[in-house]
Amino acid sequence: MGKMLKDPEQKAWADSVRIVFPKFENGGTHVNISGIALAKHSPNRENAIKLMEFLSSPEHKNLRTRKF
Asked: Please, which residues have CB within 8 angstroms of residue 28's CB and are 6 or more apart in sequence?
């Protein structure tokens, strides 16, 4: 969004988008849901699959949620 706000051709569209975080009466948790895909003709298919497997692994989840 930051780059779009700086681009005169895309600023109007970026201004129309709003991010809304849910609010719960007794608190709550924001969940970031992400996706991943592999292009059909990817030149590094084997390594891309390894990366995708790692990014969806419990090990990666633990690394992302660990407090530093």
From this structure: 22
